[in-house]
Amino acid sequence: MRRITRIATVGVMSAALALSVTACGETSSSSSSDTSSDSKGGKTAIAYDIGGRGDQSFNDAAYAGLVRAQKELDAKGTEAEPSDGESDADKVQRLTALARAGNNPVIGVGFAYAPAIKKVAPKFPKITFGIIDDASVTGDNIANIVFNEEQGSYLAGVAAAKVTKTKTVGFIGGVETPLIKKFEAGFVQGVADTDPKVKVVPQYLTQPPNFDGFSKPDLGKAAAQGQLDKGADVVYSAAGLAGSGAIEAVSKAGKWNIGVDSDQYKQEGLSAYKESILTSVTKDVEDSVFNLIKSVKDGKPESGEVRYGLDKDGVGLAMSNPAFTKMTEVIAAVDKAKKEIIDGTITVKSTP
What we know:
- This protein is α/β, with parallel strands linked by helices.
- It has two domains: about 170 residues, Rossmann fold (3-Layer(aba) Sandwich); about 160 residues, 3-Layer(aba) Sandwich (Rossmann fold), CATH 3.40.50.2300.
- It has eleven helices and 13 strands.
- It has a seven-stranded parallel beta sheet with strand order 1-3-2-4-5-6-12, with helices on both faces. A six-stranded mixed beta sheet has the order 8-7-9-10-11-13, sandwiched between helices.
- About 10% of the residues have low confidence.
- This is BMP family ABC transporter substrate-binding protein.
């Protein structure tokens, strides 16, 4: 039986009402006590980032971790979707409702949840709060799940520099934030170290506080077209749902895409363009979500910084496209770079 409840929360009242319904038709009370959680993690909740589930990227990777926990740990999951133009106060209300409903852990997908978790976590000390892609907010009951995105992006830069025929490659960042700049930094360095003659054309879709660059495919499509017009024949998009628009444009132009977060070659929503997706810079968000849920269920909840890098296969390059795996020279260069990053011969920058 499917045991994931999907809700869209707007304000305290609607959140509480939505959370009172489970997939099996049962109800759960919304106690304000911090002891309302199941200490063994029988119930867990994910609050999605901008773009929500179905982005074929970051949020979907988190969802995969929840599904795995449902199958392997018999966890009952609740999903909470973001609303357009929401504030930090909306996120506080959402997380509070999820905690009061007895979910443990409660996981915020994305750095945008940092202010809300900072406010909510101290009020529920017996509940573990996970936040993905942020280490700024700390606490005894907070697990900071972070990744070395720059390392995986470096490998993408190596591949792009090896594959390009025009000596021009593109980088599309969704929103110009320190996190996305890590992707750019690694990619640019990987390209430069592999072939200094290759030019990288970077572009960001929006600037904070406008986060449409993570959610609007048309922005990604327009940016990709601009990069194609400048001669780019490989485009790496780190833009969440907006990246799907870039993938479409690059695919229709017969050029190479590099995806992000999930193995986008395998994403059903991108199947029409999969042959153009050379590889993807993967972040093991799926395992990180599963591991946090399991730690709570086992009575040893993760807390503090939980880092995933190349050394733990927490980031890397997807090898699903047969066209990519047949490029023996490219794969050899990628493998060499991976080894040198892990052994410390190469230090990858986290800022451009």
